[in-house]
Design a protein that fits this description.
With 350 residues, this protein is an alpha+beta fold. The protein folds into three domains: 118 residues, Sandwich (Immunoglobulin-like), CATH 2.60.40; 156 residues; 57 residues, Orthogonal Bundle (Arc Repressor Mutant, subunit A), CATH 1.10.10.10. The chain is built from twelve helices and eight strands. The strands form two sheets. A four-stranded mixed β-sheet has the order 4-1-7-8. The radius of gyration is 44 Å and the shape is rod-shaped.
């Protein structure tokens, strides 16, 4: 009985202590002291504030201090955003939040329902530049931002196609390896969103990488294992399936185009060979006509007798010449008709 009571007290104590505390400072001289806390479930909306993401707001005090506390967040890690701005707006807060604001200050971080995170001002009074957190995944997310800055510098240092190819391959591996070492699929999703963004120069390489790299499938497995029911997991699965299907269609289209090219080349080759054959036959007929026109009357008569299967002896008797004269005429026929035998002479139409 006592052990049950102790266990119950421990459970109650744990549930009470399992609450988040996100606090920090903003510019106390700002025209707007409202701070918003957002839950970002769609990793494709990491770069912009959406009204549907906001879960709480608070007002900073006269010193700029703000705080969010409670027990209403998911138990497992999620990506959150804090943001504030000094943009002017009317009483309709919805319109204000849906309008792009250049003076907006924000920070993305990873946390869960039991994390304590502070956002103090840095040495030059800038907000959201320094973080003290109990969650190592938040530090990993900040490190990704530093790596992305290094990547941009590498790309900008020397603009050439060779530099772009080398750096793209290198940074894909480096960022993916860092995500793996963080042991947090949300960090990997944050990296994936950047590398696979269609607006970035990295997108063409991502499509090629997807076709050969098993990393994307393994990330899917880690998301399903750690966040099986989360919206971002289902979205990632759908997106990868769509991209893989597009790859298959593109490959089929490429194969179809190559098949069409091959068939066209074969067809063109057949047509060209037929045209060449007709040309040769025409040349041969023309050559034969020219050759026949050069024959003497005696040679024409002998040609006719050869077609009648007459022997040399019979031909000599027919035209009243010697056998040797017939042989001389036949040799002349060979030369003029460009043939090598009596059978070839017979094959010629007279």
């Amino acid at each position: 009985m006592k052990s049950s009571i102790v266990a119950l007290l421990l459970l109650i104590s744990f549930s009470v202590s399992a609450q988040y505390d996100f606090s920090g400072y903003i510019d106390k001289n700002s025209d707007n002291n409202t701070v918003y806390l957002s839950l970002v479930e769609d990793y494709r909306k990491l770069s912009k504030v959406s009204l549907s993401q906001i879960i709480r707001k608070t007002e900073a005090d006269s010193t700029g201090f703000f705080s969010f506390k409670g027990t209403n967040l998911p138990i497992k890690n999620r990506i959150y955003r804090l943001h504030t701005d000094s943009c002017s707006f009317d009483e309709n807060e919805v319109n204000h939040l849906q309008t792009s604001c250049q003076d907006r200050k924000e920070i993305l971080f990873i946390a869960n329902n039991s994390d304590s995170i502070t956002f103090p001002l840095n040495d030059i009074e800038e907000i959201f530049c320094t973080i003290n957190t109990t969650n190592p995944a938040t530090d990993a997310l900040l490190q990704v931002e530093l790596l992305k800055d290094e990547m941009r510098y590498d790309f900008a240092e020397f603009r050439s196609e060779a530099n772009r190819k080398v750096n793209t391959k290198n940074w894909f591996r480096q960022l993916q390896d860092f995500g793996l070492k963080s042991n947090e699929p949300l960090v990997e999703l944050y990296i994936y969103d950047f590398l696979s963004d269609k607006r970035n120069d990295t997108y063409p390489y991502y499509i090629k990488d997807l076709a050969t790299n098993s990393y994307y499938e393994s990330l899917q497995n880690r998301l399903q294992e750690q966040y099986p029911n989360a919206p971002f997991t289902q979205f990632y699965i759908s997106e990868i399936a769509t991209d893989n299907y597009s790859l298959t269609l593109n490959q089929t289209d490429v194969d179809f185009k190559w098949n069409r090219i091959i068939y066209f080349v074969l067809f063109a080759s057949i047509i060209l060979n037929l045209l060449l054959l007709l040309k040769l036959l025409k040349q041969k007929r023309n050559k034969k006509a020219i050759s026949l026109s050069k024959l003497t009357k005696q040679e024409e008569r002998i040609l006719t007798l050869i077609h009648q299967d007459k022997t040399n002896k019979e031909i000599a008797a027919e035209i009243f010449v010697s056998l040797s004269t017939v042989k001389t005429h036949i040799n002349n026929l060979y030369k003029k008709l460009d043939v090598q035998s009596r059978e070839e002479i017979k094959a010629l139409k007279h």
